[in-house]
Amino acid sequence: MNAMKEMLRRIGYLLTRNRRRRELAAEMDFHREMAVRAGKPDAKRRFGNPVRLQEQAREAWGWTWIDRLAQDLRYAARLVTRSPGFSLAAIGVLALGIGTNIFMFSAMDWAFFQNLPLRDPDSLVRLKRVSPQNSAEAMPYPTAVYYRDHARTLSAVMTQMGGRLELDPEAKALSAVYVSANYFKELGASAAYGRLLDPALDRAPSTAPAVVLGHDFWQKYYRGDPSVVGKTIRLNHQPATIVGVEPYGFPGLGNSGDSVDLWVAVNQQPYFVFASKALTDPGRDIVAVWARLAPGVSAAIAEQELLALTNARRPLCPECVWKGESIRVEPAGHQTVLDTRAIRGLSIVGALGLLILVMTCANLGGLLLARGVAREHEVAIRIAVGASRKRIFRQLLTESLLLAFLGSAAGLALACGVLKGCLLYFGRPTWVSAAPDWRVCLCLLATTFFAAVFFGFLPALQLARQRHKRTLARQVLIAVQVAASCVLVIVSSLLVRAAQHVIFTDPGFGYEQVISVTPGLDEHGYRPAAAQAYLEKLEERLRTVPGVASVSLVRYSPLSGGSVVNAEIQGKPVPVHRNWVGAEFFRTMDISVLLGRAFAPGDKDAVILSKSLAQRLWPGKNPLGRLYQDKSVVVGVVGDAPVSAIHDAEALEIYSPAESADMTSMTVVLRSNGAPEGLIPMLKTIVQALDSNLFPEIDLLKSDFRRQMESMEEVTLLMSAVGVAAMLLAGLGILGLVAYAVSQRTKEIAIRLALGSPKSQVMISVMRQFSGPVLVGLFAGVGMAALSMRVLRAGLNGISATDPVSYASAILIMLTVFSIAMLVPTHRALRLDIARALHQE
Amino acid sequence: MPMFRKPKSDMPKSGMPSGALAMLILRVLHSGPLHGYAIAQRIHVLSSEVLDVEEGSLYPALQKLLLKGWASAEWGISETNRKVRFYRLTPEGQKQLESELAEYARVTEAIQSVLRTA
Fold first, then answer.
1. Is 0.80 topped by the overall pTM?
2. For A60, which of B7, B60, B92 is closest by C-beta distance?
3. Out of A88, A625, A783, B42, which residue is the most buried by the measure of CB atoms under 10 Å away?
């Protein structure tokens, strides 16, 4: 209580500081007057400096530090404006370092920490199936319905299923998402125009077909015309009414919001997709499921209830439930769930960011140290007239803080600008704002403070202690910079080389003339036998088309991901990309068969390996006829062709014959003799001539390939930019430090030259003191780079962590840059006018 | 080695323990409000001119009393017709004085008994 009152009084003193100061001065004047009057003529002298005495009395208020800080800040501001060149350079360097970190953190912030702009994001969860052997992100629709009807810990269950629909008359392929009717209501969204799906209107299967337009699609295709609401369109030849438009910036669940053209109630899926069994098939995991926790229920309690429900269902529907299955309940209120994998990825990004920051700080520290030479004189004078070293140290730190704050303001502006530019360039996600939130601000504050202390501490200490002749500080700074830039340059050159390897080498398969046709039999309720019959007919028809060279079936269409299994190589599990293919697959994809043969019709328990996999499994031996995993005979070896993992230069592949159970989800790939574009309309006609209810997805492999290459080129460009920037920064930093060291030794150099020492010898002696730290930095950097690449490799596929060319070229380039950075200032120093230099000192 | 050499002491030299001055001021104010110079005078006189309170220690101590709420200050007219601040003991200051006196008596008693018997 008393302490509280005292604090309030103190604050009151702060606010009325100037008046109080005058009162105190008057009072003390009076005291002195009285003393003189009382016959102590020496009182004035004896009492000492009145200003000092008043200051001492004011110290009792506890606010002197504010006055000192204001003084320091004023002084620092004067210094900053007095040498604008230096200040701009320092602020620029800092803005880069801090801005990079803020940019990374902002991206992390919206991915993991910001709530999605949905109603009550904290109670939103996602349900996933897990068992010791299996896991699935999605579940069959009947399973979702079962949980919806029985779970009491969940107040609502939402489902979402992707699909495509063709808009008549031009057969434009649209991405459709089938959602439960309560979806928008539960997420608290309201329509931009018209209405959204509504449980009251759209739940029953018999309701009039209604669709909601995606905002982006509505803007682009209907030019944002509100009058489309109420119109009837034909999707997959079926009439449907546009009832409304999705609101702008609606994030949807599972990243769906920005890419959806049409939102359709899930119960109408069979209306649009002829003969679909999506809603009744108990065995296919096709709907993603979200739920809302009932009030007061935790995820763990919900998991328990769902486990009990799952076990209760097993006797009712044995094929619906896995052995040992449980349902995982994950929080879904954020863009991405922060799991261990994400944390590992983040720590890599964080480490890189920190490295950049450390480098900029070391760089700036060097700059300050160099400038300190010019200020030695000033510091010496201030100490001579009675300033304490502590005070000077504090003042120098204040200067660093001011610089850091200016730099971080610029960095924040830079980061927000770049973020905004990215959002504008990609046009999505629409719900993200570039404005910093409190987490970003906190991170900025921490970064700024760290930076100021890091770059300001060493030089300030040296200056305040007036021990500038010691070289340790600058040697440390040089080593830190070299090491940090070394890591950045090596890592980026490895990444760039890996990407270039993918871009500039033959991928091992032909893509220019390949077309993939996915008829989508599974969506239309085909059974495997019917699917097989259909595909046989389709293949037969396609072979007769003039201009088609070869046709084959494939389970996972090229460049669209696939299945990864673990192969055991020397006791260690190694991920291998597996695909199930038809007999002519290798001919169609132009993958060379190196040993043995391609599949023949009727092959069973046969596998074909890629060259690298065969070599890894049986180094130096003939793999033909051997047993793979004790059951499948190796019948052939084909060239490496990362058909489902184009980014991965070290991908291993294994192929099996197409299985009849998979026939419903097969894709047909075909190779044309000439340009493939002209074939597309005819292919579509053929697919639909065999079954008029099908709406096939037809893609040119070369456009997919180009798209993927472009994204890789962008990454490459970014990485090279980071590497070059790191190198330039380090080069400049070293240049500054060497220039500083040389300027300190001007006298010594002049004397040596005057006494006839050869220039080369002087040069060597000047540079000798830097070669040590540079070498130490290089070694440390190479070591750290090798270490970080081992971690990175786990996150990024197919980069050889020990590519000697990358290491060697990076080190060579760095050595060149550093030598130039050391030679230039030294050389300049050697051209000095000896007589003048000696006079000056 | 310490990071900095300790600067020359700027602290006021009061010639008495720092806590004692606050107690003396409170005690002197007990008999009525006084201005700063009068406080110093009164202490000087009452101590038979042994204790000499200087500006350098008196005014910081007075600021501290004001902040703690043990004394309040108001403007008045001095005997020489000048506007000056008079300090007055507050009820909290009264309480503080009593507790400090009791504590002082207790400590003195203890020291005395050691001196007597040792």
1. no
2. B60
3. B42
